[in-house]
Design brief:
- The strands form two sheets. Strands 1-4-5 form a three-stranded parallel β-sheet, covered by helices on one side. A two-stranded antiparallel sheet has the order 2-3.
- The longest helix has 22 residues.
- It is built from five helices and five strands; from the N terminus they run E-H-E-H-E-H-E-H-H-E.
- The chain is globular, with a radius of gyration of 16 Å.
- With 165 residues, it is an alpha/beta fold.
- The protein starts with 6 loop residues before the first strand and ends in a 17-residue tail after the last strand.
Length: 165
């Protein structure tokens, strides 16, 4: 007997390659806030936990005009392009709506996270915090998190770290 499980794939970044890979595989859905930016795992956790309060860089940041504490905007001028800012607000709202809708149905979510750090353990160590934040914000959501580890010297497939990772 064949079982089909409906699953929604949602990029939680790392960088834009995660969304580009999904698109290349035929999952060409509307963009979400983590699709075309560079994010730290701490940034993903913060955005979900604080409802994106720290998503945009502060107006007086001096390090680089496109970098916030958690999110890097490399595809456009986030400080001076009102249309770009509006598009991210729409993506954020779409993310919220999708997760709330998915919390009320049987469709499962597969969050895909591409690790951008040299040592993948720097991100994996935050998995339990990420799970707690997702479960706190979306308690009925049925999901798993898949970490993608590029640039490894040997291609290997790792077994589950826990029942949701």
């Amino acid at each position: 007997m064949l079982y089909v499980i409906a699953m929604k794939f949602i990029s939680i970044g790392g960088w834009c390659g995660t969304k580009m890979a999904l698109k290349g595989l035929g999952f060409d859905e509307a963009s979400l806030p983590f699709d075309y930016v560079r994010t730290s795992i701490e940034g993903i956790i913060d955005c979900i936990e604080t409802d994106f309060a720290n998503f945009f860089p502060p107006t007086k940041i001096e390090i680089h005009p496109h970098l916030g504490e958690y999110v890097g905007f490399y595809h456009g001028d986030i400080r001076n392009d009102a249309n770009l800012i509006d598009s991210f607000y729409r993506k954020i709202e779409r993310f919220r709506q999708q997760l709330h809708q998915l919390s009320d149905c049987d469709e499962r979510v597969c969050f895909l996270r591409t690790i951008c750090r040299d040592d993948y353990r720097d991100e994996i160590k935050h998995k339990d915090i990420l799970h707690r934040v997702i479960q706190m914000k979306f308690p009925n959501l049925k999901y798993i998190i898949v970490f993608i580890m590029p640039h490894q010297s040997v291609t290997t497939y790792h077994s589950a770290l826990d029942e949701k990772t």
